[in-house]
Amino acid sequence: MFADRAKIILRSGKGGDGHVSFRREKFVAAGGPDGGDGGNGGDVIFEVDPGLNTLADYRHRRKFSAGDGKEGDKRRCHGKDGEDIVLKVPEGTVIYEASTGQVIADMSGENRRAVILKGGRGGKGNMNYATPTMQVPKYAQPGQPARELEVRLELKLIADVGLVGFPSVGKSTFLSRVSNADPKIADYPFTTLVPNLGVVDVEGCRGFVIADIPGLIEGASAGAGLGFEFLRHIERCRMLIHLVDAASLDGRDPVADVYAINEELKTYNADLENKPQIIAANKTDAIYLEEGQENPVERLKQEFEPKGIPVFPVSCATGKGIRELLFEVQNRLEQIPKDTQIYRQEFDPQVMIPNDSLPYTVVKSEEEPDTYVVEGPKIEKMLGYTNLDSEKGFAFFQKFLKDSGILKDLEDAGIKDGDTVRMYGLHFDYYKS
């Protein structure tokens, strides 16, 4: 079954808690702290699998979770890291944040592997908190919490050429004649229910990938017919072949059909209007003209060639004119940059935090000199959402301290340059910017 969309929930692994313990051995009096660190939670990773061409694996399973990190242990033993979960997707899959529709990652081009959700860092054991003035620390850092994120997956096929046109104009027949694809062909509308990809293989013509986009009708961009389901697959195509029924066997006007389909493409995505096009006037073997009747192919040429859109008369049934059409497509492709359209990142889960308020307290430590402790029911959760190991994440954290008023409260409490700020086991040196 072809599936090009899915909505799933991702959960990274929780960081293991740091351990509180003290060295207890024979002949060793008052051994120091030896609680080990917790293991890091597993990451959620997406990876391109060239053997996949649909998102069917994500249609019937909703939640995917990485492994949790294990708690640290005595004798400075580090907890085991949680296992990463690697989700395989076909090339061309775009990952969106479900509620905002913003792009998280585009699994195309050189982007073959992406960490979408980092696991929580393991908490530090009490062995890390021994100081000359605090030789028996009885606390350890909890592991950072797991994170959940709902995402929407969309597969946008990567093809050089998109084949568009109304139902029953011969797109499937054209694809079967020029490529290695084996689409279903029958004499009724909506024979093709899924996009088909084929590699053009004609002697003397270099190969390129062509996609048959099914179900376009008037109103497709607003959800009519099947076209809305598959319009996304045209977005990455470098050019379009617009196939029309020049013989008007179904009573349609080929000139009006071109305008109608182009209007649907423009309504769905204004950029599609600017893609290079070639019109293939199909079924020329079935054209029968009465005396004085205008040739529909000539009418198409008069209408569209002054606009820079060439018209090629072809017959998918007999093969007439197809070779010439393909050579023109190849020539045009050589003039169009081959770079795959990549959707840039708009949403970075690594610096995401909830939008609700974060109450906190700022107090000067009575046990540690020149140290200020910032605590609150949601501060730890905020730290779990922020990747302080990255430059972007740390800049985000600094902005958070300023915007939330924590820096001002620290200054009001008397903090000076070089003093220490402690947040749930994390230590930062304060310097006023």
Observed structural traits:
alpha/beta, Spo0b-associated Gtp-binding Protein, Chain: A, GMP Synthetase, Chain A, domain 3, 3 domains, 8 helices, 18 strands, cytoplasm, EC 3.6.5.-, GTP1_OBG_dom, OBG_GTPase
Give an account of the 3D structure:
The chain has 433 residues and is α/β, with parallel strands linked by helices. It folds into 3 domains: 1-156, Spo0b-associated Gtp-binding Protein, Chain: A (Distorted Sandwich), CATH 2.70.210; 161-333, Rossmann fold (3-Layer(aba) Sandwich); 356-433, GMP Synthetase, Chain A, domain 3. 17% of the residues lie in helices and 20% in strands. It has helices at residues 171-178, 227-230, 254-268, 296-304, 322-333, 379-385, 391-403, 406-412; strands at residues 5-11, 44-48, 63-65, 85-89, 93-97, 103-107, 113-117, 148-155, 161-164, 196-199, 209-212, 239-245, 277-282, 311-313, 361-364, 371-375, 420-423, 426-429. A 6-stranded mixed β-sheet has the order 10-11-9-12-13-14, with helices on both faces. The protein has a 5-stranded mixed β-sheet with strand order 3-1-8-5-6, with no helix packed on it. The protein is elongated and about 110 Å long. It starts with a strand and ends with a strand.
